[in-house]
Write a structure and sequence with these properties.
Layout (H helix, E strand, L loop, with lengths): L1 H7 L3 H9 L17 H13 L3 H4 L3 E9 L2 E16 L2 E7 L8 E9 H4 L4 H4 L3 E2 L1 H5 L10 H11 L2 E7 L15 E4 L9 H11 L3 H7 L49
Antiparallel strand pairs: 1-2, 1-7, 2-3, 3-4, 4-6, 5-6, 6-7
Length: 264
C-alpha cells in the first residue's frame, strides 16, 4: 500500500488540505453531564501542551463512508473514519459520529489488504466486509484532498477488507455507550444504501456523486472473496445483548444544521 503510506505520512501542507476544507458534521447526540468547569478546561489545556500523544498524532487520514448493523441491513449510518497506517497492508481507524471536537467515538475498523485476508480462516472471513463497491459507487470518500490523490487512495482501498465494531450507538439515540459492541458491515451492491442518507452526506460535503463515480470507472474492483460479507449468505454474526438495550431503529440522517449543536 505504498500510496497510502506516502499519503498518510502527510506534510503540513497536505494535512491542511485534508482537514481545513472539510465541512463540519456534528454528533447527533449530546453527552450527559455538566458542562466542563474552568478547572477541567485548564487541565485539558495543560495536557494538550505538555503531553505527547503519538498514537493520536498517527491518525492522519480522514475517510467518510457508511455502515449497517450485521443482520440489520436497513439500519444504516454515516461513519467518520480517522486512520493510521500500521504497515503496507494494514490500517487501523477510529470511527466517530461526526468530524468536530464534540464527536463521539462510535467504534473501530481494521483494514487489511486482500493478500492478508486470503490467509484468514473461513469463519473469520465472514466477519469482514469488502470495500470494492464502496469505492466504485463513490460511497467511500476522503474529504478535502485533491481528486488525483483521492483516486490513488481509492484504487488501493478497492482491494481491501474491513472488520468493524461499533461500541457507542449514537444513531440509536443512545446518550451513553450502552449495550454490547455490534459487528458492522459495508454495502456491496447498488440499491442497498438509503439514497436519502447518501444524498444528504454528499450535499453536506459538496460531493457530485455522478462525477465521483465516473472518475473511478477505471479502478479495477476485484471480485470479493466468497467467504467475506457473511451476511449475504445468511451467515450473520452478532453479539446478543443480554441487557436488551440495543433496539434497532430506522436510519436517521445526520443533522444538516451544524449550528444546532456545538461544533467545538
Amino acid at each position: 500500500m505504498k500510496f497510502i503510506t506516502c499519503c498518510l505520512g502527510l506534510s503540513a501542507a497536505c494535512l491542511a488540505l485534508w482537514g481545513c476544507s472539510t465541512p463540519r458534521t456534528v454528533s447527533p447526540v449530546d453527552a450527559p453531564g455538566n458542562a466542563e468547569s474552568g478547572t477541567t478546561k485548564l487541565l485539558e489545556a495543560g495536557a494538550a501542551l505538555l503531553q505527547d500523544k503519538p498514537p493520536i498524532e498517527a491518525l492522519n487520514a480522514y475517510l467518510d463512508g457508511f455502515h449497517f448493523y450485521n443482520g440489520h441491513p436497513d439500519i444504516q449510518m454515516e461513519a467518520h473514519h480517522y486512520c493510521s497506517v500500521l504497515s503496507e497492508d494494514a490500517i487501523q481507524c477510529v470511527i466517530y459520529d461526526g468530524n468536530t471536537r464534540s464527536a463521539k467515538i462510535m467504534g473501530v475498523e481494521y483494514i487489511i489488504d486482500q493478500k492478508l485476508f486470503s490467509h484468514l480462516p473461513a469463519k473469520e472471513k465472514a466477519m469482514w466486509h469488502s470495500h470494492g463497491h464502496e469505492v466504485s459507487s463513490g460511497q467511500l470518500v476522503a474529504p478535502g484532498i485533491p481528486a488525483p490523490a483521492e483516486h490513488a487512495l481509492m484504487q488501493r482501498l478497492a482491494h481491501t477488507y474491513g472488520k468493524t465494531w461499533h461500541t457507542w450507538h449514537t444513531d440509536q439515540d443512545k446518550a451513553l455507550p450502552l449495550g454490547v459492541p455490534q459487528l458492522m458491515m459495508g454495502f456491496t451492491a447498488d440499491g442497498q444504501a438509503n439514497p436519502a442518507m447518501v444524498e444528504q452526506r454528499n450535499r453536506r460535503l459538496g460531493i457530485d456523486a455522478a462525477k465521483s463515480k465516473a472518475q473511478r470507472a477505471d479502478i479495477r474492483v476485484p471480485t470479493p472473496d466468497p467467504q467475506a460479507n457473511g451476511w449475504q449468505r445468511g451467515d450473520v454474526i452478532q453479539i446478543v445483548d443480554p441487557t436488551g438495550a440495543h433496539l434497532h431503529r430506522p436510519t436517521r440522517a445526520t443533522p444538516e444544521n451544524t449550528n444546532s449543536r456545538s461544533s467545538r
